[in-house]
Amino acid sequence: MAAAPKQRKTQRTVTFEVKTARPLNVGQQVFVAGGVNVLGNWRPDGLPLTRMGENLWSGYAILPVGETVEYKITLGDWASEALDEAGVTPGNFSLKPGGDVVARHTVTTWLSDRA
Questions:
Q1: For residue 96, what is the domain's CATH number?
Q2: Per residue in 38-55, pLDDT tens?
């Protein structure tokens, strides 16, 4: 009897972990917005993350193995997008094609903090 052909994995689990420099106010939530359906097709509240601790947020998405996926981190709208360490709006984060991965980010400040 011939061995069954190996099936290629077409999907992967991407776990997003976002650490905030300071605790968020009650009612605030961290989101991942990106260029695929599960990340909201660039809606700023695309994928809601779950509070895992005072300053830690986590969530996961099932994404295609063979595609590059770009994304950003927000508090639910573009006026509260995560900024980089220099206080500048960063370019899109990018997940290269591949297997399961944990995408870890630390957010020190938000665009809405500058108002």
A1: 2.60.40.10
A2: 999 999 999 999 999 989
